[in-house]
Structure formats: structure tokens, C-alpha cells
Design goal:
CATH class: Mainly Alpha
Helix content: 55-70%
Strand content: under 5%
CATH architecture: Orthogonal Bundle
Number of helices: 9
Largest sheet: none
CATH topology: Rna Polymerase Sigma Factor, Chain: A
Shape: globular
Number of domains: 1
Amino acid sequence: MREEERLAVIVEQVQQGEVQAYSLIIEHFQRPIYLYCYYLLGSREEAEDAAQDIFLKALEHIGSFRQTVSFSAWLYRIARNHCTDLLKKRSKGFRLFAMYRQQAETEGSGPALTDKVHELLARLTAEERQILLLRALEHYNFEQIAVIVGMNPARVRKKYERLRDKLGRQKKKGEIRFGEPRSDRG
């Protein structure tokens, strides 16, 4: 049985009142949803809280889930909306990954990203980060990403292509280095 089919069976069980089956959904998605929230919010604590809230919201609304989209896309859409709401609540002057240094010191063995990845993500808009993370980390196709971010697939594909071009230009200019020593030559 494919993963999506297995999830569909579990979702159906939960919809029919077998709430204890929801623990299987949490178990399956806990780390990916946490990481998605962490990359978007930039804070371990916020990501943990957000993931819990997302799973509660999903459970509350699971009765409205229909098989027209994959369950994972539906769940990530809830995660996206929740994180977007949290980001909107932050003050206007707050930059998304402004506290990386402090977090890197306190995270220890937690899901720490390298400074280079933080720097790269900080250069992107929230929309670009979402598309990049869903495509590169979660390996979603453009149709699935479109459902999550609320765009049509062609627009998502175009934005992803532009994002790749943008990152390529920045790398070429030396603004981004991937494991390469910094050159002092101009």
C-alpha cells in the first residue's frame, strides 16, 4: 500500500470517530511539519508551538478534508496559513531570520542549520522560502506546492525557475558561497 493510500485510510478512520488513529498522522508528519515551521519562522520554540497548533487545527477540521487533494498538501496548507498568520503578527521591522546567532548558540544538538543556509534563506522573500523548502526539502511537485501556497501550478513553476535563476546570479556574483573559500580578489 502506497503512503498516500495508507494516510487516506487513517484519515478516514479519524473522520469516522477513531481519534486515536490521529496519533499515526502526528507520528508521520511531526518532524516534517516542525522543520517546515522552523525554516519559515526561524525559531525552535515558535516552530514547536506552531506544529502543535497545526495538528490541533487539522484535527478540528479533518471532517472537512476531501480526497480532491492529498492529505499532506492539505496539512501543509494549514501549516502555511498558520505560519503566515504568525509572521503577520510580528512587528514590521522584524526580519525573519534575525536571531540566528542566538539560536545557534542555544540549539545545541537541535535541528540547527548552517550559517550559509540561514544566510541564503534570509535573502529570500517568505513566498520564495516556502516554494524552495517545499520543492527542495519536501520534494513536492508543482501541483502539490500550488495547493499549499494557493497559486496555480504554472505560476509556482515560473516562480521556482526565477528563484533558481536569482540564486544562480547571486552565486555567480559571489554573494552566495556553497562550501567555497571566500576569495579576496575582485
